[in-house]
Specification:
Number of strands: 8
Helix content: 10-25%
Bound molecules: copper (II) ion
Mean pLDDT: 85
CATH architecture: Sandwich
Structural class: mainly beta
Distance between the termini: 45 Å
Shape: elongated
Order of helices and strands: HHEEEEEEEE
Radius of gyration: 15 Å
Number of helices: 2
CATH topology: Immunoglobulin-like
Low-confidence stretches: 17-22
Length: 122
Amino acid sequence: MKRILIATIAAPVLAAVVAPAMAEAHAVLVSSRPANGATVTAGAEDIELRFDSRIDARRSRLRLRFPDGREVVLKPAAASTPAIMTAHVGDLGPGAYTLDYQVLAIDGHITRGAIGFTVTKR
Ligand SMILES: [Cu+2]
């Protein structure tokens, strides 16, 4: 199942990364802002996801689910290091949010996860 996904989504990347030493380099989330379960005040938020290895930000995805059920695909910004993915979202109102991420590591493996956080009134 995983292999099929890799073949369809990441074939060009996989071809470039066949070094056996990198076989276990898939990206695991180390920390995030907001953290999973965190409460933040309403307003703009600079989202940051830090992984334990390099990711291909251009082939990675971030999606924010709003309290009203709306889903917005975020555009990751250029990060200071290849293991970090950032995005800016403006004007978050109170409620429960979920940030879904899907990242492609340099070894061609995809990691998916979700971070839940709550926004309270300023
Ligand atoms: Cu891997």
